Amino acid sequence: MVGVRSVGTAGLLRATATLLAGGALAQALPLLLGPWLTRLYSPAEFGHFSLLWTVATNVAVVGCARYEFALPLADDEPAALALAALCARLLLAVTLASAGAGLVWSMWRDEALALWLPLAVLSGAAAQAMTLWATRAQAVAAMAWARVLQYGGAALLQLLLGLAAFGAVGLVLGPVVAGLGAALWLAAMTAPAGGWAALWRQPGAALREQAARHKDFPLLNTPHAFASALQDSLSMLLLAAWLGEASAGYWALALRYLKAPAGLVGGALSQTLYPRLAAATQPAQALSLVRRSMAALAAIALPLAALLMLFGPQLFAWVFGERWADAGALARALAPYIALHFVASPLAVTTMVWRAQAWALKLALVGQLAFVLGLGVGVQQGGLIGAGWGVSAAMLLYFAYYFWALATWTFDEVTQ
C-alpha cells in the first residue's frame, strides 16, 4: 500500500475530533430546523424534492468517474494536479449531459423541478471532489468548516426559501447553493501553488497517464458507487409509483434524519481513516485500524437503534408534527438497517486502499439487489412500514458478511 502520511492513533483521533466538531455544527442546523421545515413543506413537496435529489446524487457520485478518490493516493503535487484536471474535465462533461437529461425529464413528466438537475449534479460532485483534494492536503479545519457551510447552510436556505413560499424549488435550491459554496470555500483554502488556472494548463499526456494509472476507479468503483446511489433512486421511484408522493416523502424524511448521524460520524472518520490506511505499511496495522473503527461505530449505533425501536413513532410525531407520524413508524422499522449502515458507511474507503474494488463491486451488487427485493416484498406485504421491515431483514445477513470479511481480510492479492 502507498504510504503518504505516518499513521498514529492520536493523530487519527485529533483529526476525527476536529471533523466531528465541524460535522456536529453542520448537522445541528438541519436537526434544529427540521421541525420547522416539515411545517413549511408538505410530504408531497418533500417527495418531489427527494426524487430529484436522489437522481442528482446518483449522477453526482460518479461525476468525476471516481478519479477524485485517487487524489489522496497521488505520489506528488504534479500527479495530484493532473488528477484534479482530469476530474474537472469529466465533471464539465457530466454537467452538460445532465442539463440535456433534465430538459428531457421536464418535458416527459411535465416536471419543471427537473430543470435544476445539472446544478444539483455540479454542486454535489464539486463538493465531493474538493473534499478529496482537501483530504490529500489534510486540511482538516477547512473540511470541518466546509461541512458546516454545506449541510448547515442548506437547511438555513431551505428555511428562508420556505418562508418565502418557494415550494419544492426552495428545497432544491438550498443544498445546491450550499454545496457550491462549500466547494468554493475548499478551493480557496487549498489552492495549489500556481492557482486553479493551472488545471487547464495540464498537458493531455499527464491526464492520460493518471487516467491509466488509476483506471480501477472508473472501471470498478464507478459502477459500485453508481449502483449504491441507484438503490436510493429506485426506492424513491418505486415508492412514488406504488404508494404515492406522500409515502416517498415519508421515506425521504425518515432516511434523511436517520442517516444524519452516519453522515456526521462516518464522514469524519472516513476522511481521516483513508489517508492513514493508505500509509499503513503492515497488514496487521491496517486491520487494527479497521477493527477499532468498526467497534467504535457499533458502540454508537446500537443505542441509537434501540431508541428508535422503542420510541420512533412518538419522537417523529412530537418533533416534526402529527402529519409525519407515519415517518416515525417507518423509522422504527428501518432502525436495524440504519444501525448496520452507520457502521458500514465510513468503511467503504477500506477496499479502495486495499485494491479490492472488484470484490467490493460484486458484493455491493448483491447488497443492492437484496435491498430492492426486501423493499418490494415489504411493500406488498405491509405497505410503507412493511417496506422498512423488509429492508432491515434483507440487509442483516449482507452486512454481517461484509463486516466479517473486512475484520478477517487477507492481503495475498492486495498491492502492497
Structure characterization notes:
By secondary structure, the chain is mainly α. It has one domain (9-407). It contains 14 helices and no strands. The protein has helices at 9-40, 43-60, 77-109, 117-137, 140-163, 168-189, 204-213, 216-243, 245-258, 260-279, 283-320, 325-344, 348-353, 357-407. It starts with 8 loop residues before the first helix and ends in a 9-residue tail after the last helix.
Total separate domains: 1
Order of helices and strands: HHHHHHHHHHHHHH
Q: Termini distance?
A: 4 Å
Shape descriptor: globular
Could you tell me the radius of gyration in angstroms? Answer: 21 Å
- How many β-strands, per DSSP? 0
Class of secondary structure makeup: mainly alpha
Tell me the fraction of residues in β-strands, as a range. under 5%
Helical proportion, percent range: over 70%
Described by strand count, sense and barrel closure, the largest sheet is: none
Q: Which oligomerization state do the chains in this entry correspond to?
A: single chain
Count of DSSP H/I helices: 14
Task: Estimate the mean pLDDT confidence.
Answer: 87
Catalogue the unreliable spans. Answer: 1-7
